[in-house]
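For reproducibility, we list the full input for the magnesium ion complex.
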Amino acid sequence: MNYLEFFHLQEDPFGLTPDLNYFYPSKMHNEILSSLDYAVEQKEGFSLVIGDPGTGKTTVLKIFMDRWKDRAEIALIMTPRLSSEELLQAVLDDLNIHIDTANKNEMIKLFRDFLINRSLSGKRVIIIVDEAQNLSDGCLEELRLLSNLETDKEKLLQIILVGQPELQKRLHSEGLRQLDQRITVRATMRPLNQVETSDYITFRLIKAGRGSAVFEEKAKKLIYTISGGIPRLINLTTSRALMVAYLGTSHRIEKKHVLDAAKHIPESQPGTVPRRITMRYGATTLLILAVIFLSLISYHALQTDTNPPPTPNIAKVQDSSTATTTQPAQPAPPAKKAVTDPVKSHAAVKPEVPEKREKKATVIVRLARLREGPSFNADIVTKVSRGASFPVVDEWTTQSGNKWYRIKAPDGNEYWIASYIVRIVSPDQLP
Ligand SMILES: Nc1ncnc2c1ncn2[C@@H]1O[C@H](COP(=O)(O)OP(=O)(O)OP(=O)(O)O)[C@@H](O)[C@H]1O
Ligand SMILES: [Mg+2]
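The corresponding predicted structure, in tokenized form, follows.
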């Protein structure tokens, strides 16, 4: 009996290829799809969808294309490592515009005729570029020029760029400002939250025939912690957990199955599964030691400080219900930094690791929460005291405009902290 038969499933519920039938529409997905619909209906020029690997960008694109397939001609460019000429050819090809010329002016003329013709018949023409972070500046410029094809009244072409966060950064650069200014709709794919992750797992199981697999709540919670709510990592972890349960002939998927599953997820997978697992569970002892060590250092430092009563620098948190009660920002005290800074304290234990000149986030409130994800709904992992300073490895602005920093903690793991409770020092400002 194979794994699917064992669980009475008709097909693999957690495949890694984007599949329309398995599309789980969270509120965020619906909002993004509505924004794109709006952009195309209103004939806005450029739209931009940004998201980390595995968050579901290509999946959303497929849904969007399906929604528009009868009302639009769509060119989908999936491999944008092209020269600007190749890009134009690929677009014409995908739209079934036959060209027997290599002359660019003639190609553009053909394309314009096509656009006018489709516009007269009430159809939209859309170019979608997936993995658009791989487009060269030349190609982005080419797309900008194409978007200038318009009549006196309206734009003839809508362009949707989809890519990873570095695309957004590139678009802010001087050379691409003109294009950036033409973007009217911007959307960000964020990871699922814990409730959505749990719903997502159930949803996909139902789609695959429901079957007999029963997930313990704790197992689902752990999948969320491991995957950070990134659908690709949820699929990977969940499908391995099912496999582990199957090998143990259990229809009930428990936390131990998920833990075991995480060990078999290759290091090279996008995301941070193995590292998180190592931190949270594989090396729990190490973590506890680190917490005790840092707490002691912090406690000692604060004892000798003139500030309010000491709080351990890092403390394991059980309850996330106080998530939004973080105190307002206050100026950082003249802290005894060499002692209170857990990063530096950690470096003192491992002197062979040279300290890098990185952008740093320093906590400016009495007690700040480090979270699993860039959201006030994300689990709180630890609390850190004012003055604690961490290298910043990434940042994220949510759809509601809240900025978060992903920081590296002394235990080597990465967590998120809200931007308004830290002060940022860039490498050139460091002494
Ligand atoms: N909303 C969703 N509903 C169901 N499955 C999803 C959803 N979002 C993502 N997935 C699943 O997660 C996996 C990754 O999704 P997808 O390939 O769309 O991500 P991506 O952001 O395009 O990744 P990359 O940046 O690597 O191209 C796929 O297996 C897909 O089926
Ligand atoms: Mg993709």
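The first strand starts at residue 46 and ends at 51. Residues 57-58, 130 surround magnesium ion (ligand 2) (CB under 6 Å). Both points were considered when choosing residues for closer inspection.
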